[in-house]
Specification:
heterodimer, A: about 120 residues, mainly beta, 4-stranded antiparallel β-sheet, 12 strands, about 0% helix, about 55% strand, B: about 110 residues, 7-stranded mixed β-sheet, 11 strands, globular
């Protein structure tokens, strides 16, 4: 069965410093992996997705994530945080091929950005 | 643009009421989902459907049922609302063809009093 663990429930950074949001997954086959962002009182927006092509995936707003099979990780990074990055971030694994497209969410990481 | 539309942003219902949450998508997606979102618990899957009239239980189906009579519409039903069902409810849809992303509605914040 698939599962996903976000290692930090809350991360606080200063504006202009790097962001690292950690995600580990468990999957019995090659997974599809996603990062979604949710700003306050907004719906979920896709940041980026891993689809078994390049292991380094670039997303919107300067975010990127690297798929590391040996570490079963899919950490989200950004070189320089902006105040507008403050939001909740979800790492998601997709069980597309044997569970009807079921998406499994991590518990979320709340990112705070200090001026 | 893909649109997933939930019929209400905010709802307040009384304990014991039957509650319907509606979700409509316009991309002809086969798969649709209902999640509830609670602080510290992330998104938990209630039910999903991969075809008209087909449904599968998710991780927390108790107290809920669903209906999918048409491909574009997926309804979540609270048979007898209780205060522990106060939550944010999110609907999503995706096509299972390839590694496509899921598209989410804006959410319905349900308060049961």
């Amino acid at each position: 069965a698939q599962s996903v663990t976000q290692l930090d429930s809350h991360v606080s950074v200063s504006e202009g410093t790097p962001v690292l949001l950690r995600c580990n997954y468990s999957s019995s086959y090659s997974p599809s992996l996603f990062w979604y962002v949710q700003h306050p009182n907004k719906g979920l927006q896709l940041l980026l997705k891993y689809t078994s092509a390049a292991t380094l995936v670039k997303g919107i707003n300067g975010f990127e994530a690297e798929f590391k099979k040996s570490e079963t990780s899919f950490h989200l990074t950004k070189p320089s945080a902006h105040m507008s990055d403050a939001a909740e971030y979800f790492c998601v694994v997709s069980a597309l091929y044997n569970q009807g497209g079921k998406l499994i969410f991590g518990q979320g990481t709340e990112l705070s950005v200090k001026p | 643009d893909v649109k997933v539309t939930q019929s209400s942003r905010y709802l307040v219902k009384r304990t014991g009421e039957k509650v319907f949450l509606e979700c409509v998508q316009d991309m002809d997606h086969e798969n649709m989902f209902w999640y509830r979102q609670d602080p510290g618990l992330g998104l938990r899957l209630i039910y999903f459907s991969y075809d008209v009239k087909m449904k599968e239980k998710g991780d927390i189906p108790e107290g809920y049922s669903v209906s999918r009579e048409k491909k574009e519409r997926f309804s979540l039903i609270l048979e007898s609302a209780s205060t522990n069902q106060t939550s944010m409810y999110l609907c999503a849809s995706l096509s299972p063809q390839g590694y496509t992303e899921a598209f989410f509605g804006q959410g319905t914040r349900l308060t049961v009093v």
